[in-house]
């Protein structure tokens, strides 16, 4: 076994997921809403490891527990046993690209407004965030955080002043909020879920016994023993109360829906089904299509754990080249969160080992989901060579990243994207592979060809269906903290 410990800042060299949400409206007395929500957050942990939180509604009174850390760190058995078992519960796991890792951005966010208290948990990125925040600040608003959830709360609260009920306020807010969001609200008598008009981020509805759930990914519904009902549609708001669920549509619709293609490639769990397409099947198809584009003569095809594994199986099936384990990943090295000076502690340390017994003396194809800066790929190729591979061919199950994402995935800076600065041949030389191939844009659209909605491919194509921010929000206060 060739061991190597890499210490790479995941914020720059790997794509990070951006939050998962869950909501439960409990109608069955025997169900424990806290245990179910806790289990659901485990199922969503892959979407965010920076903080976790749960809000429980007991007869209109909200109790919230949230903290920086993974679900297991935040919800110890003692803490869980002290959370009351309510009839409406929401939960959240967060990833952030913010330097400050401020606790104030942890969710669910509880809002006390003119009509009482509600809690909100959101996934995504509001693209008119800076404009809305400036307008609100000029009107005297004071913000505790930089979270999308806080902006959403303000807009909903403002709309509630001129609407008949919370449902109308959320619908009006949806017309004002641009960009990507899938969110849940815990209100005194109902659970609300809503998805932006483009459908960038997934959101679905399920049932467990007579109770309803709304969550980011369908795998969660399976993991809590529930039954999938359907996806929340782009621009739809779903309201669940004693009588079941009702659906409403926002007035403003998108010219074209825009589900994030990268959900299928990397973000979502393989056992999820998003807008009618299995994530596992989409990854497998990506591998088959990679073989169509790059039929390489090799002895073994391996995937980089975890999201490259299924594409590698697809390539193997299409090519007849045996699939094998090329790497072993230590699953017990997680992320340590800290603040300010502790930045180093927050680096994701990925311990990955090349499986010498499987690759020595062989022509190896490695499949990974993406390349951001290139250092991780360089390291992976090097590990394979140290393990004695005769040839190392790298294939990527998505097209090159050339543009930023403004819709909730952490691809912020063009300067950090290697494909924006180098040709594919130059990248091949940089990572040290014998050959390098990326799935084409035409083919990435085929991996989820049966999906019920259209796709966003902006980071691969540079064409944006949705409005992108005119100005980016700059947190002056966070800068001040950094300088100290
Ligand atoms: S720009 Fe890329 S990562 Fe962002 S939503 Fe679109 S496909 Fe997904």
Question: Overview of this structure, please?
Answer:
The protein starts with a strand and ends with a helix. Helix 5 (129-138) crosses helix 6 (148-160) and helix 10 packs across helix 11 (308-319). The longest helix is centred in the middle third of the chain and has 15 residues, at 279-293. By secondary structure, it is of the alpha+beta class. The strands form six sheets. It has a seven-stranded antiparallel sheet with strand order 4-3-5-2-11-10-12. Strands 6-7-8-9-13-14 form a six-stranded antiparallel sheet. A four-stranded parallel sheet has the order 18-21-22-23, with helices on both faces. The chain folds into two domains: 2-12 and 277-451, Rossmann fold, CATH 3.40.50.2020; 16-267, Aminohydrolase, N-terminal nucleophile (Ntn) domain (Glutamine Phosphoribosylpyrophosphate, subunit 1, domain 1). The chain is built from 17 helices and 24 strands. Bound molecules: iron/sulfur cluster.
- The overall strand count is 24
List ligands, each type once.
iron/sulfur cluster
CATH C-level class of the largest domain is Alpha Beta
Question: Strand percentage, roughly?
Answer: 25-35%
What's the story with the biggest beta sheet? 7 strands, antiparallel
In the CATH hierarchy, what is the architecture of the largest domain at level 2? Answer: 4-Layer Sandwich
Overall number of domains: 2
What level of helicity do the residues show?
A: 25-40%
- Walk across the major sheet and give the strand order: 4-3-5-2-11-10-12
Helix and strand composition category: alpha+beta
Mean pLDDT: 89
CATH topology of the largest domain: Glutamine Phosphoribosylpyrophosphate, subunit 1, domain 1
The residue ranges in which pLDDT falls below 50 over 5 or more consecutive positions are 1-12, 335-349, 479-484
The CATH superfamily label of the largest domain reads Aminohydrolase, N-terminal nucleophile (Ntn) domain
Q: Given the structure, what is the number of helices?
A: 17
Global shape? globular
Radius of gyration: 22 Å
Q: Whole-Å distance between the termini?
A: 45 Å
């Amino acid at each position: 076994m060739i061991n190597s410990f890499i210490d790479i800042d995941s914020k720059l060299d790997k794509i990070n997921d951006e939050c998962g949400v869950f909501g439960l409206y409990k109608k069955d007395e025997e169900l424990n809403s806290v245990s179910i929500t806790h289990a659901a957050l485990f199922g969503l942990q892959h979407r965010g490891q920076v903080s976790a939180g749960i809000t429980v509604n007991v007869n209109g009174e909200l109790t919230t527990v949230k903290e920086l850390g993974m679900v297991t760190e935040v919800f110890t058995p003692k803490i869980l046993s002290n959370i009351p078992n309510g009839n409406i519960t929401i939960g959240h796991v967060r990833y952030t690209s913010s330097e400050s890792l401020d606790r104030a951005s942890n969710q669910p966010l509880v809002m006390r407004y003119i009509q009482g208290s509600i809690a909100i948990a959101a996934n995504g990125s509001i693209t008119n965030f800076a404009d809305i925040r400036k307008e609100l600040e000029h009107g005297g608003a004071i913000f505790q955080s930089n979270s999308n959830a806080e902006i959403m709360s303000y807009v909903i609260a403002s709309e509630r002043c001129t609407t008949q009920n919370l449902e109308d306020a959320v619908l009006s807010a949806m017309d004002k909020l641009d960009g990507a969001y899938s969110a849940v609200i815990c209100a005194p008598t109902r659970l609300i879920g809503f998805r932006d008009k483009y459908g960038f981020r997934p959101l679905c509805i399920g049932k467990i016994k007579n109770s309803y759930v709304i969550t980011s990914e369908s795998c969660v519904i399976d993991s809590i023993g529930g039954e999938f009902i359907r996806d929340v549609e782009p621009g739809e708001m779903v309201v669940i109360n004693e009588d079941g669920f009702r659906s409403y549509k926002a007035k403003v619709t998108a010219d074209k829906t825009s589900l994030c293609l990268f959900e299928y490639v990397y973000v979502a769990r393989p056992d999820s089904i998003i807008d009618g397409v299995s994530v596992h099947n989409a990854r497998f198809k990506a591998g088959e299509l990679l073989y169509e584009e790059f039929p390489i003569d090799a002895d073994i095809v391996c995937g980089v754990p975890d999201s490259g594994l299924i594409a590698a199986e697809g390539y193997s099936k299409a090519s007849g080249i045996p699939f094998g384990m090329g790497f072993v990943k230590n699953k017990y090295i997680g992320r340590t969160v800290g603040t300010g000076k502790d930045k180093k502690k927050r680096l994701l340390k990925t311990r990955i080992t090349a499986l010498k017994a499987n690759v020595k003396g062989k022509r190896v194809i490695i499949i990974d989901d993406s390349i951001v800066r290139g250092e991780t790929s360089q390291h992976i190729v090097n590990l394979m060579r140290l393990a004695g591979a005769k040839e190392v061919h790298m294939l990527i199950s998505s097209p090159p990243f050339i543009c930023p994402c403004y819709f909730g995935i952490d691809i912020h800076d063009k300067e950090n994207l290697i494909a924006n600065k180098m040709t594919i041949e130059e990248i091949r030389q940089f990572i040290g592979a014998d050959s390098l191939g990326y799935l084409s844009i035409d083919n990435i659209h085929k991996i989820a060809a049966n999906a019920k909605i259209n796709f966003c491919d902006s980071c691969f194509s540079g064409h944006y269906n949705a409005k992108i921010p005119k100005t980016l929000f700059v947190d002056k206060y966070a800068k001040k903290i950094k300088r100290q």
